[in-house]
Amino acid sequence: MKRTLGMVAILVAVVAATVCGTMWALSSPPGSSPDDNYHQATIWCVGATESSSADTCRVVGTSETTGGRVVEVPALVANPSCYAFDPAQSGACQLPLRGRTATTEALDNGTYPGGFYDVMHLLVRDSVPESVLSMRIANVALGALLLGAIALVTTAAVRRLMAITVTTVLVPLGWFMLASVNPTSWALSGLTAFGFALHTALLVPERRRRVPALVLAALGLTMALSARGDAPAYAGVVTVALCILHWRTLWADKRLVVLPVLVGVVCLWRLLVAAQVASIAGASAETDRTVDQVLPNLLSEFPTLFSGMFGYGFGLGWLDTPVNAVTAFPAVLVVGFLGLTGLGRMSVPKALAALLIFLPMLVLPLMTLYRARLVVGESVQPRYILPLMPILLAVLLVDRVADRALTLSRVQAVAIGLALAVANTAAIYANARRYVTGIDGPVHIDHLEWWWQSAPSPGTVAVVGGLSFAVLAATMVASSWRPTVHPSADATTGRPTSGPRHDPTPDPDPVPSPSPEVPA
């Protein structure tokens, strides 16, 4: 009975996440995520030749500047972002583009791995808006199903970890990117799934659960590696971090070492052929700024690269869609609270694992900006380091031993769930309003300059997105719905004597650990 209820809860969470992501997909028109003109043209032009139809994609020449293809595609594919960098401009500027074609050379010619584009091309139809919407929903559903499958085979502690992490770390940028045709969608969901699945495989001793976990880890890794060129480096970092976290398990069963070795070989191979990483490594100055002009800015403003994931310092879309304080403040506050809570239960392996994940998130963006002589806010965006954020938070929320996760109190879980449900609802509405009327329009949307055909109203989309997120957050609340007991409480009264509070309740689905970690 208990197992059946658990499976039902996972199914409800998967459906709720898919509905929430679908509402995010509806909240903006085609071309609304960064570089969508580039990514859309690449998706439409998979396998295109000179004899292909221009209604999809036809090669019409070779670029004199890049040497790549020049193609003819629907104008709404090549030039969808007529509203970019002008937040007062609604999506209505796309209306004259319908039924027309345009030429462009802004498409991928080998910089990205390509697998993401191949799969998305399968969803190309005659209608560009319908095609984009189906791709967005498919990406959301794929991520939700993959994480739901991991939840089925993992332990109760990891399910609690997944519920807390996924609920808190995606508002608002994570949801926006998941529900997009940007390769970051797969990098985020794939790397998150890979991390949780590998964590599970190193935890569970039973073959019946370890094998499915490894299969799901392989699927997540494949998604990430087929999406972005920097994903191999990120996957390698996650792998090493989890090996540190589980070093006692690997030491006790050395056969498991083959897992990180295989991942390392695959990631190294992909890394060596990744043009994106090569371009970062060879970055050169793009401005005339001196070191004295750049360095103070980088040292004082770098936190916005992290807070930008949660709506503070960077906008959504082409960085031109601001979210309200009712979104940014709770999101930053909750993630900060959870991170500091995790720091309160530290061990040497956990500290090293968290540091290993955090350093690339900090160093790589700053190094790129420094070498290009750029300041924070130029070129490098929070979405580049977003794929590592769920795993970083998950590592911080692991207890001192890897088979347990920290537990929120009832009040904390409910407060976090309610705050983020409001934040998510407000973010969907703000994103929709920006494209329906522009941010110069009334706060209450009273007319539609742009909207999808046959779609619910923007207000309905925001409400449904908020309610579905609340259902998802309820799984996090339910997983934390246990009393917090003091470790030295009197057996009769239950009152604490002294010392810090933590949750000593045995995990309902425990996995034996060789021995406890040594506290830092």
UniProtKB/TrEMBL annotation:
TM spans (from-to): 133-154, 161-179, 185-204, 211-227, 233-250, 257-281, 325-344, 351-372, 384-402, 414-432, 459-478
Species for this entry: Nocardioides zeicaulis
Keywords: Membrane, Transmembrane, Transmembrane helix
Name the UniProt record assigns to this protein: DUF2142 domain-containing protein
InterPro entries: DUF2142_membrane
Domain of life: Bacteria
UniProt region (Disordered), positions on chain: 483-520
Composition bias type Pro residues, residue spans: 507-520
One Pfam family cited in the UniProt record for this chain: DUF2142
